[in-house]
Amino acid sequence: MATNGRAEQRERTRRTLVAHGRRLFAERGYADVGLAEIVAAAAVTKGALYHHFAGKADLFRAVLAEVQGEVADAVAARADACEDPWDRLTAGCRAFLTASTAPDVQRIMLVDGPAVLGWSEWRALDEASSARHLHEALSALVAAGVLPEQPVAPVAHLLSGAMNEAALWLAGSASPTGLEDVWAALSRMLESLRAA
């Protein structure tokens, strides 16, 4: 019983650190948040932080994984609600763009993520979350003949890059119709991929 209680306490401490780290990273960005501030907000010691994470970058990695997982879950939920493979693709793409308009998602996932972890590690985390769903949706469309027979990986990377860039553009745009403008442009791009 005591071991179980300690494990639960460790998990609570870890969740608290991730939650406070996420809030602070979202509010001010990775570079402007110190470890002392995170542990003070979480009401734990630096030793407790180092018990769970190798340092600030490791805590950020956990925060980023949480954010990417939430976005991937939102994408999957919207896509899986559709029967038609084309509707699954478009619903998933729109869900990604919508989720990416949240300021904490933009700051953590799209701005600080690649800068803090480096492009390769950030891309690997992206591949394991939202990009995986995109690849699956495109593969289903090729198999169904909706898209021409072709290697799916290049198309998935191109669309993923386009959506990440669109999300970054939305982050800096003051346009009240920004999301709808991006969606209209992306819809035309997606339609151009369809088999004749």
From TrEMBL:
Residues 34-53 bind DNA. Gene3D superfamilies: Tetracycline Repressor, domain 2. SUPFAM superfamilies: Homeodomain-like. Residues 11-71 form the HTH tetR-type domain. Transmembrane segments: none annotated. It comes from the Bacteria. Pfam families: TetR_C_41 (PF21351), TetR_N (PF00440). Keywords: DNA-binding, Transcription, Transcription regulation. GO terms for molecular function: DNA-binding transcription factor activity; transcription cis-regulatory region binding. InterPro entries: Homeodomain-like_sf, HTH-type_TetR-like_transc_reg, HTH_TetR, Rv0078-like_C. PANTHER family: HTH-TYPE TRANSCRIPTIONAL REGULATOR BETI, HTH-TYPE TRANSCRIPTIONAL REGULATOR RUTR. This is AcrR family transcriptional regulator.
